Amino acid sequence: MDYAPTQTGRSQKPILGGPIGARAILDGRAVIVLGSNNYLGLANHPEVIARAKEALDRYGAGPALNPPLATTPINDALCAALAKFHRTESALLFNSCTSANVAVACTLVGAGDRIFSDRLNHASIIDGCRLSAAESRVYNHADFAHLEVQLAEPGAGKKLVITDGVFSMEGDAADLPALIRVRRRHGATLVVDESHAAGVIGPGGRGTAALRGCEGEVDLYTGTLSKAFGAFAGGYVASPAAHIRELHDRGRFFMFTTAISPSAAAGALAAVEIAMRDDTPVRRLADNTQRLRAGLAELGFKLLGGDSPITPIMIGDEEKAAAVSRALMKEGVYVGAVRFPVVPRGEARLRAQPSAAHSPADIDEALAAFARVGKRLGLI
C-alpha cells in the first residue's frame, strides 16, 4: 500500500520512502545517510527481518497485555541474550530506554536518597531524575572532583550515580574507571546508559565498560534496541537479579506500559545474536568512523568526540547549521542539524554517524560533498 505524505510538519523533516541502510530514499531520492542510529547496518538484515516476520505471524501485532501479566518465550530469550551480552545476571525489557531510565531513577531511589547526574546526560535521564522522589544533583560534565564534593555532603540515604556511556551530542565516552573510583569511596550505585555504546564500541562491541576495561564494575546498564540492535522500539535494564526483581515488582514505568511486541523482540534478538557471534560489523563501523573523521579533519572542519561513531561537526550559528544540512542534502548526503534547545545557543552542529553498512566509497563520496558545501558556504 502506498501512503501519500501529509503536509503536517512537512518543512521540518524529510519523508522516508524505504529501509535505512548506507543509503535511503528521502523525499523521493536516494541519498547517503550519515545521521541514522543504524550503527551495525542490521535494520534491514535478512535474518533480522525474517525472524521478526515469523514472530508477527505467530503472535500477531502485539501482546495486548501489560508486561507484568504475561510474556513470550521470545521476550524472555531476548532478556537472557541482553544479560549475556552485558555479562550480568539478568535483564528486563521496557518499551523504550526512556522508560528504563525513568524507572531506574524512580524505583531504586526515593525520598531521603540522592541521585547524581552528569550535566550532559540524555534527556531521558534528566527527566527521570526530575520525576524521582530522591534529591537530584547535577555535576559538571566529566568533572569527578565536582561529583566527589557532592557525594561527600552529609546524608543518610542511598546514593545513585547515573551517566551516559557515550554522550549523544558530544560523542565522547565516559571515563568509567575514574567514575568507579569516586563512587566506591562513597558507596554509590552506578548506572550507565549504553544506548549509543552497546553493539558499537569496545571489544566485541560490548560498550563503554569494555572499552574502558572495567566490565563487572557497573551495577546497572540501561540501553535501547533502537540503534545497534536492529532499530526496533524498546529498551532494557541489565543488572544483578535483585535490581531486576525490584524494577519488575515496583517500577511504574515497567508495570503501566505496553510490552514490546514479540516481532520486535524476535528481530532484536536476532540482531543481538549476530553482534555476539561476529564482530565484523563492529570492526567495519570503526574503520568507517576513522575514515570519516580523518577526512573531515583534513578538510578543516572542527570536530568533537572521538570515542564513538558520533561525529559532531561544529558550526555555531543556528541558521548556518540548518543551511549546511540543506546544502548537503542537495548534494545527496543527509546529515541532520542539531540546534537549540537540544544544544546550547551558539553550539549548533551537524551530527554525523557512519554505519557498518557504508562502504569506503560511500564515505569518500560523502566527504567530497562536505568539501563542496564547506567551500561554498565559507566553512573551510
Task: Please provide a written account of the structure.
The longest helix is centred in the C-terminal third of the chain and has 20 residues, at 280-299. Helix 1 runs antiparallel to helix 10 (262-277) and helix 11 (280-299) runs parallel beside helix 13 (360-376). Helices cover 40% and strands 16% of the residues. The strands form three sheets. A seven-stranded mixed sheet has the order 3-9-8-7-6-4-5, with helices on both faces. The chain has a three-stranded mixed sheet with strand order 1-2-11. The protein has two domains: 23-33 and 279-376, Aspartate Aminotransferase, domain 1 (Alpha-Beta Complex); 46-277, Type I PLP-dependent aspartate aminotransferase-like (Major domain) (Aspartate Aminotransferase, domain 2). It has helices spanning 46-59, 73-86, 97-107, 123-131, 144-152, 176-185, 208-212, 241-250, 252-255, 262-277, 280-299, 318-330, 360-376, and strands at residues 23-26, 29-33, 90-94, 114-118, 135-139, 159-164, 189-193, 220-224, 235-239, 311-316, 333-334, 337-338, 348-352. It is of the alpha/beta class and 380 residues long.
The gist of it:
With 380 residues, the protein is α/β, with parallel strands linked by helices. Helices cover 40% and strands 16% of the residues.
